[in-house]
Input
Amino acid sequence: MASGPIPAAAPSSPAAEKELAELYAKFGAAHMIPLWTQLGELMPDEPAPRARPHVWRWSELYPLAQRAGDLVPVGRGGERRAIALANPGLDGMPFVTPTLWAAIQYLGPHEVAPEHRHTQNAFRFVLEGEGVWTVVNNDPVAMRRGDFLLTPGWNFHGHQNATSEPMAWLDGLDIPFVYGNDLSFFEYGPDGLSDTSTPERSRAERLWAHPGLQPVALLGSRPSSPLAAYRWEHTDRALVEQLALEAEGHQATVEPGHAAVRFSNPTTGGDVLPTIRADFHRLLPGAATTPQREVGSSVWQVFTGRGTAVINGVEHPVEHGDVFVVPSWASYEIRAEVGLDLFRFTDAPIFEALHQYRQLTLRGGTS
Ligand code: 1HN
Output
């Protein structure tokens, strides 16, 4: 166990004790810190995350976002009516985990969130509703229920609600990672949106949303997916087919009754963003994921259904819209009470790239 101070140079006399105290005071004044007082905290035997498992209830999130819609205008300066989910272990920072930001964003009837760009990578996941177009790199992309939409870093983007109904969605970004490493660049775009049209299909989809087909004019791998929208009809169909194939006796699911798809970059087959992995899971009634631990952190949102997230042995009932966070190396397992659909995003690409990724399957149950 690498914890507790190493009993080096235990003072043998009051004089030695005084000398040692003077040495520590001089370390402090010189901005030096001896390792032997800190080893256990700096290098725990296994990850000891400050982020805590936590559940935000949609029944609480949505009405508060709606109230913000009544009281707080959206426009230049504040830029977005986005309300961050702040992990209770992270000192009041607007961070859901040490690397990830999650927020509920609310756009009222005919409101516009102005264009800007930043080095942070972003996505949106739409729990319910429709009628907002996100304009990414001058390309208007419709947002509808179940869709997963990308805004890779340094693309100008703004949003427009083209209807008379409000809409809310989940935003995910790598803000804490960029903040913690001093990597942030930000630039305002022109006032107003670069394109206010409301096409059914974005240019990105017309180019890239054809299974297995890449435009020859644009071959070559890119660090982020050029496909701006992953539509619910495709996600749903892929999951339906996995479960149908499983029922026909073929290998198709992660484990019995658990279908899953990874959103991927069609130019590499890898993750959609350099810092963020996203996938979608469907559990049949009564099915459960195998308990496991992973380094890095993940955030889940229940799309439909009801079940239990068991994190570090604590059972959290979850249902439509609830968001929960699994900190690094926490044991977790998800059990479906009725059919359960979940969206998840994680910071795994960062740690895979840095050869820090580890995962442990806990066959004997959570411990
Ligand atoms: C941002 O640009 C969006 O584009 C959402 O919708 C959340 C949080 C911090 C900084 C920029 C968006 C954001 C953000």
The longest strand covers residues 101-107. The chain is about 20% helix and 30% strand.
